[in-house]
Design goal:
Aspartate Aminotransferase, domain 2, Aminotrans_3, 3 strands, Glutamate-1-semialdehyde 2,1-aminomutase, alpha+beta
Length: about 110
């Protein structure tokens, strides 16, 4: 950021729920790092992070920081995540979700 601090968006709760570009797109903010949870796996247990090149270059294999996890790259979670993103990318997907949400709130 302008102040030299690293801005990290924790999209675990907001990821894809308000926009395909998550809260950061909705609010027009570009963070240095982004963290996401099960939403990228279609609700299955998985997580991911990403960010600006100068930060991500510190992560293995390019950099010295190693990151791994039991569920990293789980084929089922990745397939579910890809399908979820395909569905959210369809025209009118978020408008449909808004209508369903409004209906559920009323009932």
């Amino acid at each position: 950021t302008q102040e030299g601090a690293v801005l990290c968006f924790d999209e675990v709760m907001t990821g894809f729920r308000i926009s395909k570009g998550c809260a950061q797109e909705y609010f027009g903010v570009t963070p240095d790092l982004t963290c996401m949870g099960k939403v990228i796996g279609g609700g299955l247990p998985v997580g991911a992070y990403g960010g600006k090149k100068e930060i991500m270059s510190m992560v293995s294999p390019a950099g010295p920081m190693y990151q791994a996890g039991t569920l990293s790259g789980n084929p089922l979670a990745m397939t579910a995540g890809i399908k979820t993103l395909e569905i959210l990318g369809r025209p009118g997907a978020y408008e449909h979700l808004q209508r369903v949400t409004e209906r559920l709130v009323k009932e």
